[in-house]
Amino acid sequence: MPDMYESIPYDTDAEKGLNNKPVNRPPVAGTIPRGGFPAYDIPDTPEGYERARVEVTNPIEASEKNLEKGKQLYTIYCTSCHGEKGDGNGALVQNGKFEGIPNYKDRDINAGTIYHVIMHGKNLMGSHSSQLTYTERWQIIHYVEQLRADLLK
C-alpha cells in the first residue's frame, strides 16, 4: 500500500479542492466569523451620529468586573483629555495643549453616541477603534456613563 507512505498532495486552498468541489465560498449572509463581532457600518456623519444615538446599545452587562476594566481603560486612554471625573479637565487641558474638551455633564450623550465617537473620533479627538477591542470599547462606555451620572448629581 504505497499510498499510505506517499500520499497524493492536494492543494485544498486551490480553486478546486478535494473531490473537485469549490472551496472559496462567501460567508453565509447574516453570520459573523468565529471570534468576530458585528461590523460597525454607521457612517461618520452628523446623520450617522444621530442614527447611533437611536440604534446602538451596549450589549455587555454593567457588572463590577466590566466597570472596573472600563475604569482601567479610561485611565489609560481618556483621562489625559477628559479628566479623571469626566469634567474635561485632564492633564493636557491643564497644561494648555487643548481647549474645549467637553464635560460629560454638559453633553447629550448615550451609549450609541459614545461608541460612535470612539469608532470615528470627533473634532480634535481621533478614532480609538484600533486601540481598543470590541468589548473594551463597551467597558469604557459603561464607565463613562457612570462618570456622567456622578456629574449630574
From TrEMBL:
Gene3D superfamilies in UniProt: Cytochrome c-like domain
Entry keyword annotation includes ATP-binding: no
Family matches, as Pfam families: Cytochrome_CBB3
UniProt entry keywords in alphabetical sequence: Heme, Iron, Metal-binding
One MF term in the entry's GO annotations: heme binding
InterPro entries named in the record: Cyt_c-like_dom, Cyt_c-like_dom_sf
Residue segments, region Disordered: 1-42
Every Cytochrome c domain range: 65-148
The UniProt record lists the keyword Metal-binding: yes
Superkingdom, taxonomy of origin: Bacteria
PANTHER family: LIPOPROTEIN-RELATED, QUINOL:CYTOCHROME C OXIDOREDUCTASE MEMBRANE PROTEIN
Protein name: Cytochrome C
